[in-house]
What does this fold into?
Amino acid sequence: MLPSHLAQLPLRVLTPLFDPSQDETDYPLPLHMGRERRLSGELPYSWDNQRRAPRDGKPYCVFQYTLSGQGVFRDESGAEQAVGEGQAFLALLPSRTSYWMPTGGDWGWLWLNFRGDTALSLVRTLIERHGHVLTLGHASGPIRLLAEFYQEATEGEILSVYHASAGLYRFLMELADLFLSHRRDHPTGVTKALRLVRDRLGDPALCLDDLAREARLSRYYFSRLFTRTLGQSPGRYIEEQRMHRALELLSFTHLPVKEVARYVVSL
It folds into this structure.
């Protein structure tokens, strides 16, 4: 059974989130998403990715996460792999890849199409290191964030291309953190504090007391433990993370500096 944060998502395809510079009659990029399901006996579901490209010819990526049932993905070498519940595939399009639902099968999924030089570079790295099929799980950070992003879109809460770009950026950074970061084992309190920093990075009220409270440690002991573990004070770490976030947003989303400041906090 799907957890509530996924089961409650509307089962329909969204209106594309267009870049204002594009003609809305063009292919629905740079961002398009939806939730779908195909059952046994319905029309066949199959995609050959060699011919899939928007009119401008620029490549893009499809991320498709299985909510129920399973499909099959074939990579450039011709190798086939089942994509079952809790798994997703990444594919750069156009490419010599394909995916489909087996005859008599049942496949439900949440999908996202996007492009952008930085985004596609990250996807290439993920594919090179981990292959096209990734195992995430319904409770993983990327899927929870994608579900939240999809829910916002279905409810009309994504009001601009800037908001859409920022949501896509957060999702991709969650994927990178899960599959590409070199993780170290930190004390439990520090790990909880780092999670809070990630979740509230754009909150100007975030402070040492909040982190110590989350870690369930005294302010003094937490500060010493954090500094010993990461080699810098909590305050300096937050400042550094905000600077990284600002640089990434400027590189990835083409947001104006004022918009970046709004999302990241004045530096």
Observations:
- The beta strands are 17-18, 30-38, 46-48, 60-74, 80-84, 87-93, 98-100, 107-114, 133-135.
